[in-house]
Amino acid sequence: MARLAQLPGFGRAADADADAPRIPRLRTRYYAFLSYSHKDKELANWLHRELERFRVPRSIAGTLTTNGVVPRRLSPIFRDQQDLSAGGDLAEEIKAALAASQFLVVLCSPAAAKSRWANQEIESFKRTRPEGCVLAAVLAGEPFASDIPGREEEECFPPALRHKYDRRGHQTNKRAEPLAADFRESGEGRRIAFLKLVAGMLGVGLDELVQRETTRRHRQLAWLAAASLAGMAVTSTLSVIAIQSRDEARDQRRQAEGLVEFMVGDLREKLEPIGKLDVLDGVGSRVLAYYSRQNTSELTDDALVQRSRALNLMAEVAYNRGSLDEAQGLYRQAMAGTAEAVRRSPDDAKRLFDHAQNVFYVGEMARYAGRPAQAEAHYREYKRIADRMAALEPDNLKYRMEVLYADEDLGISLYDQHRFDEARRQFESVLAPMEKLASLYPANTSYQKEFSNALAWLADTQRSQGDLDAAISTRERQVSSLNRMLDVAADSDVRAKLITAHQGLGVVLAERRRSERAINELHSAVEEAESLIPIEPRNANWKSLAAAARLDLARTLLSLGRREDAAQQVRAGCALWANIPTTFAVSARTRLQTSCAMIRSRLALADGDTQQALKLGEQALASARKARSEDPIGDRYRLAAMYRLVGDVRQGAGDTQGARRAWNSALTQLPPPAAERLWETNERAELLRRLGRAGEANVLRSRLEAIGYQSVN
Question: Model pTM?
Answer without folding.
Answer: 0.61
